[in-house]
Specification:
247 residues; alpha/beta; Rossmann fold; five-stranded parallel sheet; 11 helices; 5 strands; 8% strand; globular
């Protein structure tokens, strides 16, 4: 009889434990941000466009802005340009590029960068991240607003929207990334650049394979971030375009 009683109590405790465990799981899933975070981690949902880390980094701009001399090369854009350092672009370059930047967030932070008024050249590379949140035609309208906000007397070297390597699984898991959408966005941004004086585009043909994909030997394996060699190739192309803008 004692054995039966112990078994009964054990089963009861186990049932209570399982009930409590399911309760905790239900709370985590339904009452917290667990599901959105999980979707973002798995690439099923893009990260928030406006996040604390991005704006905290922007708040550091004014102190750095004051150190930018007249005639300097100023870099604005997203992680594609943030990943380029002095080895690729030169030590006289002052970069304010931040990973995750969109045209929209750059417009919001632009007032913190009066150095653009005394720059010798502005390198601009932004727009691809916007595809997570907006369609190409809407992005192009905001891009035109950004170009209009740049000082008319300062040369701008614009980075085209690079293709991705669609053979990579990480790319296929992100529906907002497709070369068809990227090409359409690049076409629209190119049209906006052609309407602004003192604006040239970087020749990025060396980064693109014959099939239209980003070259597999020049990206970091995910299909869109560049490898170290890819950074060097892009850096050389940007330097050539900057040098040409000074002639």
């Amino acid at each position: 009889m004692k054995t039966v009683g112990l078994r009964g109590r054990t089963v009861g405790l186990l049932a209570l434990y399982l009930l409590a465990l399911h309760g905790v799981l239900a709370f985590v899933v339904l009452k917290t941000n667990f599901l959105p975070l999980a979707r973002k981690t798995l690439g099923w949902e893009p990260p928030e466009e406006r996040n604390v880390a991005l704006y905290q980094a922007m708040l550091q701009w004014p102190a750095r802005d004051r150190a930018v001399p007249r005639g300097a090369v100023v870099v604005l854009g997203d992680s594609l340009l943030q990943d380029l350092g002095a080895d690729e672009l030169g030590r006289e370059v002052h970069s304010f590029a931040l990973g995750g930047t969109t045209v929209s967030t750059l417009l919001e932070g632009f007032a913190l960068l009066p150095c653009t008024n005394r720059a010798g050249c502005i390198v601009l590379g932004v727009g691809a991240n916007d595809l997570k949140y907006r369609e190409p035609d809407v992005i192009a309208l905001e891009y035109a607003t950004l170009l209009a906000a740049l000082p008319a007397e300062v040369a701008v070297v614009a980075l085209p929207i690079l293709p991705v390597d669609e053979t990579c699984e990480a790319v296929t898991q992100r529906p907002y990334l497709s070369n068809a959408r990227l090409r359409e966005l690049d076409r629209l941004l190119s049209e906006r650049c052609s309407k602004r004086a003192l604006t040239a585009r970087v020749d990025v043909s060396e980064l693109i394979a014959k099939d239209g994909n980003l070259r597999s030997d020049l990206h970091a394996g995910d299909g869109w971030h560049l490898s170290d060699e890819g950074d060097r190739v892009l850096g050389r192309a940007i330097v050539r375009a900057v040098d040409a803008s000074k002639r």
